[in-house]
């Protein structure tokens, strides 16, 4: 099944627009896991098992693994996801962007090595830096449009031909670039007005929306701004608020993560 169809099925199957971000930070792990050599795998598997029926996607962020030389653990976690939860889209958050020949290697990494259904990409090197990913039929390309951080405004808000640059990116991706029908965009929950602008430009194209939870984005404003006519269209992503839901990071971390994921999914559904 291609990325977009899998996403639509997960939205419906789990009645959820919540994407669970996997950003494993050893320093915030529960004490009983910290010394284990397989701490990252054990932590992520427990979070996955505790939230899989509440999520429309899982999104591992590659930097948290690569910084520790833990790519083998990321491979194991991705294999676990594909084996046990093949109906839930696996998004590799890598924000890649490079010339075509190099892009092809990044695409092999995302789709072949990790088996991701989709990968996050930067648009700023243009279409020939995104096109190589489209050789993997049915896999998704999720392209940065209006990011959740304040500094995103430095470039994305620049006025180009009377419109902010992020709106050009939205229009370009939704029309010319989406030749395989597997593209999506990233718009931060911290900018609901811009999310509404993007929704108006891109029709029903899916949008990955990070920025609720730890970054303080408002759920009601996000859902109201970003939902499609069918009350879907978004992967609203939260990492730290779910992963580290217990202040003291106790042995009950997975149950606490489930509690927060459930509350978040339900808070999102209230406004669909
Ligand atoms: O592409 C992303 O996922 C992303 C885009 C963006 O604009 N802002 C953003 O925070 N992210 C990622 O989403 C996650 C947000 O984590 P939390 O703030 O802990 O929920 C991190 O892994 C970020 O790298």
Automatic annotation (TrEMBL):
- EC? 4.1.1.23
Q: In which pathway does it act?
A: Pyrimidine metabolism; UMP biosynthesis via de novo pathway; UMP from orotate: step 2/2
Q: What residues does the Orotidine 5'-phosphate decarboxylase domain cover?
A: 17-253
- Pfam families noted in UniProt: OMPdecase
Q: Which InterPro entries match?
A: Aldolase_TIM, OMPdecase_AS, OMPdecase_type-2, OMPdeCOase_dom, RibuloseP-bd_barrel
Q: What class of enzyme is it?
A: lyase
Catalysis performed (reactions): orotidine 5'-phosphate + H(+) = UMP + CO2
* One GO BP: 'de novo' UMP biosynthetic process
Write the record's keywords in alphabetical order, separated by commas: Decarboxylase, Lyase, Pyrimidine biosynthesis
Catalytic residues (UniProt) = 95 (proton donor)
Q: Does the keyword Nuclease apply?
A: no
Which CDD domains does its entry note?
Answer: OMP_decarboxylase_like
In alphabetical order, the GO MF annotations are: orotidine-5'-phosphate decarboxylase activity
For this chain, the family text in UniProt reads: Belongs to the OMP decarboxylase family. Type 2 subfamily.
This chain's protein is named Orotidine 5'-phosphate decarboxylase
Tell me what organism the protein belongs to. Massilia eurypsychrophila
